Amino acid sequence: MIGKLTGRLDYRAQDHVLIDVRGVGYIVYCSDRTMAALPGAGEAVALYTDMVVREDLMQLYGFTSLVEKEWHRLLTSVQGVGAKVSLAILGALGPDGVSRAIALGDWASVKAAKGVGPKTAQRIVLDLKDKAPGVMAMGGAVMDAMDGPGLEVVDDADPAPAAKPAGKAPPKKPSGAAAASAGALSALGNLGYGPSDAAAAVAEAAATYPDADEPELIRAALRLLAPKG
């Protein structure tokens, strides 16, 4: 399975790009948000990938972060949600937005993505709500792992190191907000709060205070979790 591609962006279409890796061209489908974040033709590029293989189909889907890739994997595990719908949701909300919407049970935000009806949006939130804390925690956990991977193609069937193309495409790290949310979630867990309650409080606090650092998010989330009355 191909888990990561790094090479030169040969050309870009409306919903996919062609990445040249050591003379082999890989067509990779991406969300609108990911497409907008990619460099121009001829420049170095790196994408985490998910490969779908069926009897009549073999396609690669690309993501700028492991968190985005994980949400794609979870979204496509929901009945009735295929890769196209998953990319539409990620394109509309981004991985952090998906985390917030699902943690808060905000199916209306999920429904705003193209091709997503109310029943599908509600099913996504219901099926994945318990998974949101784990994915939100990834925002901080992958920071160190993404500090400096080399330019390479990762393929379980071909462990040989890849040649480095000219230039360097620095990997996209999770945002500071994602790391702050992950830290706050961990702190609340250490204080004994359940994962779902902690994730919902952190998501609401992050939406209210988008520039808050980790200590500020913890305080805001604790206020939300405090008994009322």
From TrEMBL:
Residues 73-92, 108-127 form the Helix-hairpin-helix DNA-binding motif class domain. Residues 154-179 are annotated as: Disordered. It is found in: Cytoplasm. Residues 159-179 have a biased composition (Low complexity). Residues 178-229 are annotated as: Domain III. SUPFAM superfamilies: DNA helicase RuvA subunit, C-terminal domain (SSF46929), Nucleic acid-binding proteins (SSF50249), RuvA domain 2-like (SSF47781). Belongs to the RuvA family. Has three domains with a flexible linker between the domains II and III and assumes an 'L' shape. Domain III is highly mobile and contacts RuvB. The RuvA-RuvB-RuvC complex processes Holliday junction (HJ) DNA during genetic recombination and DNA repair, while the RuvA-RuvB complex plays an important role in the rescue of blocked DNA replication forks via replication fork reversal (RFR). RuvA specifically binds to HJ cruciform DNA, conferring on it an open structure. The RuvB hexamer acts as an ATP-dependent pump, pulling dsDNA into and through the RuvAB complex. HJ branch migration allows RuvC to scan DNA until it finds its consensus sequence, where it cleaves and resolves the cruciform DNA. This is Holliday junction branch migration complex subunit RuvA. It comes from Leisingera daeponensis. The lineage of its organism: Bacteria, Pseudomonadati, Pseudomonadota, Alphaproteobacteria, Rhodobacterales.
